[in-house]
Amino acid sequence: MKGNTAEADAVILEMKDVKVHFHLDEGVLKAVDGIDLRIKRGKTLGIVGESGCGKSVTSQALLRIVPSPGRVEGEIKLKRMRPEGGLEEVDLIRLDPRGKEIRDIRGGEIAMIFQEPMKAFSPIHTIGNQIMEAILLHETDDKEEAYRIGVEILRKVGMSNPEQRMGEYPHQLSGGMRQRAMIAMALSCHPSVLIADEPTTALDVTVQAQVLQLINDLKESRDTSVIFITHDLGVIAEMSDDVAVMYLGKVVEYTDVDTLFHAPKHPYTKALLNSIPTIGRGNRRLESIEGTVPFPMNLPKGCGFYTRCKHAVDGMCNREDIPLTEIEEGHFVRCVLVGGQDARKEAVR
Ligand SMILES: Nc1ncnc2c1ncn2[C@@H]1O[C@H](COP(=O)(O)OP(=O)(O)OP(=O)(O)O)[C@@H](O)[C@H]1O
């Protein structure tokens, strides 16, 4: 991906040709297959796509927690502050996934929240102990100070009676409160990047809106970059500055949120948008597009969306792998039928 210098300066995390392949007895499962993404400082990158397209494995790659037998390739460059001041760039893929450096980054510079907060918490320790443990690992050695920071952060995420909450166990909190506690734990170490993987899917609509608002407020007040993973385009519209649409382990369209909703180019993006009757009202969940996502193993050459695409052209779309191409400044599309990639672009108008 190209880009001007001012924009490049604001990029805090960049993924280049990242692949996550699972080498199974049956063959190679290409969960993530060469993605390029940029995360800008203080901005939210939304990643959207149907189930199985590789959203969660992408976030596992960022944290270097891809389970065996997954292999990660490519570059994931993170800009981080040196202890002595100034920025340094570190390639997360070159780090030992069990080493000290990545452990410092995980929960330090990069934190994650996900759908089920019970997974983030141990059921046998209090919320306070667990938040303090994270703070003691990354922020301070002083227990009293860690307690104070813990109370403060619970207050910030909107928990009533934070001192009392510190002494409670995860099962004593409601779903929405547990979600807030997980956000508090993730934010306690001032991450520069917050990965949110479907963090509100299990919550009712009102609590969902409050949690989304909380993430937006924290992003703005702390200049945190957010990677927001969801299959819900309504949430994408509300949360994102830039959006990457994923299909079968690849980014098929990447642009700013307004362009995505007002001038989408990839047939898959258009199909996703057409599958929600009205954005901003009613059931915002994606309805399924005709056909199913192929299993990402032993795939033929060409566009992954070929079998479901209304505009597919035999001999053109299924001939060779299609590159992600910048069709206008900052707008990238992986389709031979779109914007300058081929004379047949009229076909998808
Ligand atoms: N540990 C694993 N071993 C083998 N295959 C895996 C593993 N984890 C994920 N996959 C496969 O990788 C592909 C991408 O999965 P991923 O969970 O990233 O999809 P997703 O877009 O996050 O889906 P969802 O929205 O349902 O969470 C899927 O085909 C999945 O079956």
Strand content: 15-25%
What is the radius of gyration computed over CA atoms, rounded to a whole number of angstroms? 21 Å
Low-confidence stretches: 343-349
Distinct ligands: adenosine-5'-triphosphate
Record the strand order, biggest sheet. Answer: 6-7-8-3-9-10-12-11
Count of alpha and pi helical runs:
12
Give helix % range.
25-40%
Structural class: alpha/beta
CATH superfamily of the largest domain: P-loop containing nucleotide triphosphate hydrolases
- Estimate the global geometry from the Cα principal axes: globular
Give an account of the 3D structure.
The protein is of the alpha/beta class. The chain folds into two domains: 5-109 and 191-207 and 220-348, P-loop containing nucleotide triphosphate hydrolases (Rossmann fold), CATH 3.40.50; 123-190, no CATH class. 31% of the residues lie in helices and 25% in strands. It contains twelve helices and twelve strands. Helix 5 (127-138) crosses helix 6, helix 6 packs across helix 8 and helix 8 packs parallel to helix 9. Residues 343-349 have low confidence and may be disordered. Bound molecules: adenosine-5'-triphosphate. Adenosine-5'-triphosphate binds at residues 22, 29, 31, 49, 51-57, 67, 231, 296.
